[in-house]
Amino acid sequence: MGRAHEVRAASMAKTAAMKSKLYSRYGKELYIAAKSGVPDPEMNLSLKRKIAEAKANQVPSDVIKRAIEKAKGGSNENYDSLRYEGIGPSGATIIIDCLTDNSNRTVAAMNSCFNKSHCKLGVKGSVSFNYDNLAVLSFNYDDEEKMLETLIENDVNVNDLEVEDGIMTVYADPSDLHKAQEAIEALIPGVEFSVCAIKMIPHEYVKLENAEDKEMWERLLRLLDEVDDVQEVFHNVIED
């Protein structure tokens, strides 16, 4: 019982940490969207779409409300978008998207993460050319023909569509994320998305077989996860 309790507690802690990271990410993105125009979703299309995306990713209403209220309150916080690209062991590649109010702090953190994990921080474009930037939406559904018809009718430029074990994944142009989301929600009332976001999808994947390579790679991911400025991490490693 003691061991089982420890496993459950560790799992719950990991889930809580993941949720906290997700809420922090959307909190910043919602704040930026609200600050970029009127902090009212009915008058700010970017904010309206970001709210819809946040809700699709199960972000609580109070997190959304706090971000908008923060923008309404005249906060002078400003964030810059930064992207870092790097190379790990055995053909592993990684892309890290950050939102930061202090670029010097962020670049120092990136250098530290890569140095401590014996990976190499690359220059702009050194990795991203091997990735596609796509809107990705995953949900329970299996009628490919009906879904494709619906998306085309709604002017969504579909890159690919696949179904595995009853889970459908739609890949579309990044600019069509919200059109695709709205079309899917109209077709499947009450649909819940397991993924609804713009992602960098690698052309090829690698699997790390060497124990030392795995250890270094896991260290890099763990260190990056501890950096508050990190918003998203994309990589081409197949995880066990």
Task: Summarize, please.
By secondary structure, the protein is of the alpha+beta class.
Describe the overall structure:
With 240 residues, the protein is of the alpha+beta class. The chain folds into three domains: 2-72, Integrase, N-terminal zinc-binding domain (Arc Repressor Mutant, subunit A), CATH 1.10.10; 80-128 and 204-235, YebC, transcriptional regulation domain (Alpha-Beta Plaits); 131-202, Alpha-Beta Plaits. The protein is built from seven helices and eight strands; from the N terminus they run H-H-H-E-E-H-E-E-H-E-E-H-E-H-E. The chain has helices at 2-35, 45-56, 61-72, 103-116, 144-153, 177-187, 211-225; strands at residues 80-87, 93-100, 120-121, 131-140, 158-164, 167-172, 193-202, 230-235. A four-stranded antiparallel beta sheet has the order 3-1-2-8. Strands 5-6-4-7 form a four-stranded antiparallel beta sheet, covered by helices on one side. Strand 5 (158-164) and strand 6 form a beta hairpin. The longest helix has 34 residues, at 2-35.
Name its key features.
240 residues, alpha+beta, four-stranded antiparallel sheet, disordered N terminus
Taken in chain order, the helices and strands follow as: HHHEEHEEHEEHEHE
Q: What name does CATH use for the topology of the largest domain?
A: Alpha-Beta Plaits
C-alpha Rg (nearest Å): 19 Å
CATH superfamily of the largest domain: YebC, transcriptional regulation domain
Largest sheet: 4 strands, antiparallel
Average per-residue pLDDT, rounded, comes to 90
Please identify the top-level CATH class of the largest domain.
Answer: Alpha Beta
- The oligomerization state is single chain
Helix content: 40-55%
CATH architecture of the largest domain: 2-Layer Sandwich
Q: Which strand order spans the largest sheet, edge to edge or round the barrel?
A: 3-1-2-8
**Cα separation of the termini:** 27 Å
Structural class: alpha+beta
Tally of helical segments? 7
Domain tally: 3
Total beta-strand segments: 8
The shape, in one word, is globular
User: Strand percentage, roughly?
Assistant: 15-25%
Uncertain segments: 1-13
